[in-house]
Amino acid sequence: MNTENIVKELNFKAIRSSGAGGQHVNKTSSKIELTFDLENSESLSDSEKALLKTKLSSKLTNDNLLILFCEETRSQHRNKDLAIKKFIDIIKTNLIRPKKRRKTKPSKAAIKKRIETKKKTSLKKALRKKPKFD
């Protein structure tokens, strides 16, 4: 995965932001909408696209577009940088494949230790009972 090529494929749109800013907020478009077309991306391989489709299925639109918004600051440029960082973090974390689980057997010593502790606890609990007098 080449992050420089992926960043070139991103589309940005500036929107009017809500929140702090006073009268200035009504005049400027500081909120950034980042869109990434996962289906038509040339910088991702087919296996990476398939993995991202499954992992990001809740965040993707019907057209396999990933849309992120950023309106944390009043600066359009800082919001754009933050949106790019957020996007790259999402992509990197979701491209990590989990390790396959290998089946293992407990060692003979571990089995023996487990049985001994079970015997000790059962003896401890048996000694708590009232003795039977026949």
Automatic annotation (TrEMBL):
One of its GO terms (biological process) is rescue of stalled ribosome. GO terms for molecular function: peptidyl-tRNA hydrolase activity; ribosome binding; translation release factor activity. It is an enzyme of class 3 (hydrolase). Residues 16-32 form the Prokaryotic-type class I peptide chain release factors domain. SUPFAM superfamilies: Release factor. Residues 98-134 are annotated as: Disordered. Keywords: Hydrolase. Its EC number is 3.1.1.29. Pfam families: RF-1 (PF00472). Belongs to the prokaryotic/mitochondrial release factor family. This is Aminoacyl-tRNA hydrolase.
